[in-house]
Amino acid sequence: MPKNILVIEDNTDIANLVMINLRGKNMQVDYAADGETGLGMALTEHYQLVILDLMLPGMDGMDVCRIMRSNKVYTPVLMLTAKTSELDRVLGLEVGADDYLTKPFSVPELVARVNAILRRSEQYQAATAKDEPGPMQFGDLYVNPIKRQVLVDGNNIDLTAKEFDLLWHFACNPGRVYTRTQLLDSVWGYGHDGYEHTVNSHINRLRAKIEADPARPRHVITVWGVGYKFAADESQDSAT
Fold first, then answer.
1. Shared domain check, 153 and 224
2. What is the DSSP secondary-structure string of 83-118?
């Protein structure tokens, strides 16, 4: 079955180049020329991937991605940017983009990135269906992967897509120590070498949301000189 892709790009030459090549790979591609229109399509239609330009008229790509995630739309996002500053790329990742590609880009690289994102998404869905992971309880912390819901002491906690992915990765591997590079590879995917500080900022925000005292965390623990681990409460069990 063809994959459904949404391209949000105001440059018609780039948009046509992307659409022609993806359609040549047997993908169904829809198009929006501005952020507001694209956001409406992303929120109401089912896509396997959104290719999103950063600089758009009216609502920019950062806002589109941020609003998607705040509305619990977790469709993977490949962000296109003409900017080359590290800050722009990091901000894109931190508002919930799954990958980025800097203009000008080659068509083979674009196709490779699209295929990699789609493959990771399929692998995650297949693993979820196979293993049927249920909700988990770690002391006061409750994590439900199906609903992507997190509760602390019964109170709902709003996490971004990547914050949840990071927490769930930890929860599935309690006690295992991960370096920042390993977390980048596992949660963000390839192509993010050199962005270890993105892991740090996500860890800090995650702690601020789930820890009673972020300065003295009980769940996400720093292993000095190495990285981080998830310390499961001894009473850990599968939630009903």
1. yes
2. ---HHHHHHHHHTT-SEEEESS--HHHHHHHHHHHH
Residues 117, 23 share a domain: yes
* Nearest to 160, CA basis, from 32, 70, 47: 70
User: What local confidence, expressed as pLDDT, does residue 238 receive?
Assistant: 39
Cβ pair 5, 114 in contact under 8 A: yes
Question: What is the domain extent for residue 234?
Answer: 133-238
User: What is the mean pLDDT of each successive set of 10 residues along the chain, which is 240 residues long?
Assistant: 92 95 94 96 94 92 89 87 66 73 88 85 62 79 88 89 87 91 79 68 91 93 93 50
Residues 61 and 82 in one domain: yes
CATH of the domain at 98: 3.40.50.2300
The two beta strands, 136-138 and 237-238, are: antiparallel
Total domains in the chain come to 2
pTM: 0.66
Strand, helix or coil for residue 82: coil
Q: 12 to each of 20, 55, 99, how far by Cα in Å? A: 12, 13, 22
Provide the β-strand partners of residue 53: 80
Residue 236: per-residue pLDDT? 41
